[in-house]
Specification:
- This protein has 10 helices and 9 strands.
- The protein is of the alpha/beta class.
- The longest helix has 23 residues.
Length: about 280
């Protein structure tokens, strides 16, 4: 069933478990996520991010994701992640996405508040939820890598003010996490997560979840992380599945697809178990 983010994350926050958000840039990824969620009776969030649109355009993602979510026997939120522009977020709304992240984390605090508050007003009028980001979650490599990530960590007092001023439904925080593959084990600031959660009293989001240690996930969820973003892990699993199919002698895409989906489903199941959302439907 197609729902918005609050329908999934508010029960998760109350029940002290986490929910996975999985980018699904093709039908095989979407099948892996939704089929596994149904098998494990777990709520999930699925969607894409603005940075991924060159691979699969937003309209095409909506074409397969929204009907699949509507047919699902478990709650599925179709979420547009890391929306960097107002126009793209509006496009997601028109296409039927039930949640958007308006990422204004690179502008001034005042501008971030103003833009997110406007987006919240528009989205809430349509029954759509909004995620925002405060601080800034950088990348592990490339142009988005931050030289001193701690300079961009989310401040708990500022987060409290931000939540009140914007009315955002969920808040992505910078607490030592980063997007992509980790080149060395990250050190999450768990005390900061706990403090932000208590001050804002809204679901918190951990971006850059692929590659974190299992104990880090469990502790972060216990302290207030309700949504965990996963992409790199399932992306790599899909590639490994295709390679396994080729090694097994498959010579067509049709023959490779079951290998691809099976490998990704294993990762999705692992995350659902880890976050504690299995059987929560």
């Amino acid at each position: 069933m197609l729902v918005n983010m609050n329908d999934i994350l508010l029960p998760a926050k109350e029940g002290n478990y986490g929910v996975g958000f999985f980018n699904a840039i093709n039908v095989e990824m979407a099948r892996a996520v939704i089929e596994t969620a149904e098998e494990l009776r777990a709520p999930v969030m699925v969607g894409t991010a603005e940075i991924l649109l060159p691979t699969m355009e937003l309209e095409l993602v909506a074409d397969y994701l929204i009907p699949m979510a509507k047919r699902a026997s478990v709650p599925i939120c179709v979420h547009y992640d890391h929306g960097l522009t107002f126009d793209r977020c509006m496009e997601a709304l028109r296409l039927g996405f039930t949640s958007v992240m308006y990422d204004c984390s690179t502008v001034s605090y005042e501008e971030n508040v103003s833009r997110v508050a406007e987006m919240v007003k528009i989205c809430h009028g349509m029954g759509v939820t909004v995620e925002a980001e405060l601080g800034h979650v950088g990348d592990n490599v490339g142009e988005g890598k931050l030289e001193h990530p701690e300079d961009y960590y989310t401040d708990p007092d500022t987060a409290e003010d931000f939540a009140k001023c914007t009315g955002a439904d969920a808040l992505a925080v910078a607490v030592g996490n980063a997007h992509g593959d980790y080149t060395f084990p990250p050190k999450l600031d768990f005390e900061r997560i706990d403090t932000i959660s208590k001050k804002t009293n809204i679901p918190l989001v951990l971006h850059g979840g692929s590659g974190l240690a299992d104990d880090d996930f469990r502790r972060a969820v216990k302290l207030g992380i309700s949504k965990v973003n996963i992409f790199t892990d399932i992306d790599k699993a899909g590639k490994a599945g295709v390679e396994a199919g080729i090694a097994a002698g498959e010579k067509t895409m049709m023959g490779l697809i079951p290998y691809e989906i099976s490998a990704m489903k294993k990762v999705v199941a692992e995350k659902i178990h880890l976050f504690g959302s299995e059987g929560k439907v």
